Amino acid sequence: MEPNNTAVRYDRIAQWWQNQHQDSSYGLAQLERAIKFTSKRNSALDVGCGSSGRFINVLSNQGFQAEGLDISTEMINLSKQLQPEITFYLEDICCWIPRKFYSLISAWDSTFHLPLNAQEPVMKKLGDALEPDGVILFTCGGGHTKGEISGSFQGQDFDYSTLGVDAFLRILAECHCTCRHLEYDQYPEKHVYIIAQKV
Ligand SMILES: C[S@@+](CC[C@H](N)C(=O)[O-])C[C@H]1O[C@@H](n2cnc3c(N)ncnc32)[C@H](O)[C@@H]1O
């Protein structure tokens, strides 16, 4: 599914997402784990931030200059209402060009929606956007080979793709990032989160 079609679907459930996730701790322990590896707390970017503000809250409270990026207009509108002091980018991560380096980048349950052929360039872009010692946290489909699946969520059809865990680790290594943590955190679901650090 092209990113613009993903955006339309998230527009429709953006308000529901905010109501449902504003007080949710989903992913926050993993974010705290990633933060522990950082040595600097300069800028941080939450890719596919959605509308709950929960990752950005943690990043701001931990001293980062937090920013959010999302392709869904409604997600960004709701985010701006919730956190008017934060910089938000209404962008497709496939096209967005980073203008700075980041101490931490999170992409929690967002880049798994990218078309398969966009996975590698986007992961490289995010890896390259880390400052020395910078940390990336992202989720991906935990198969060992590349693949695409379709599913339904809150009445909307979505597509998901993965390169396979080994390919993500290879791309990270090519960006001079070493894996600090990899976990099948919803096993037996093939949902994986990876923390890697620029060395
Ligand atoms: C499952 S939601 C997760 C939201 C947030 N990370 C959270 O955990 O609350 C996926 C988010 O990724 C965004 N997204 C999907 N594809 C994107 C793309 N190509 N560029 C930027 N954001 C994207 C969606 O609009 C949506 O807000």
Structure summarized in a few sentences:
The protein is of the alpha/beta class.
Report what the structure shows:
With 199 residues, the chain is an alpha/beta fold. It has one domain (3-185, 192-198): Rossmann fold, CATH 3.40.50. It is 35% helix and 32% strand. The chain has six helices and nine strands, in the order ααβαβαββαβββαββ. The chain has helices at 3-21, 28-36, 54-61, 73-82, 116-128, 165-174, and strands at 43-47, 65-70, 87-90, 102-107, 130-141, 147-153, 156-162, 177-184, 191-198. The protein has a seven-stranded mixed beta sheet with strand order 3-2-1-4-5-9-8, with helices on both faces. Strand 6 (147-153) and strand 7 form a beta hairpin. Helix 1 (3-21) runs parallel beside helix 4, helix 2 (28-36) runs parallel beside helix 3 (54-61) and helix 5 (116-128) runs parallel beside helix 6. The termini are far apart. The relative contact order is 0.17. It binds S-adenosylmethionine. S-adenosylmethionine binds at residues 3, 6-7, 10, 21, 27, 48-50, 52, 69-72, 75, 92-94, 108-110, 113-114. S-adenosylmethionine (SAM) is lined by residues 3, 6-7, 10, 21, 27, 48-50, 52, 69-72, 75, 92-94, 108-110, 113-114.
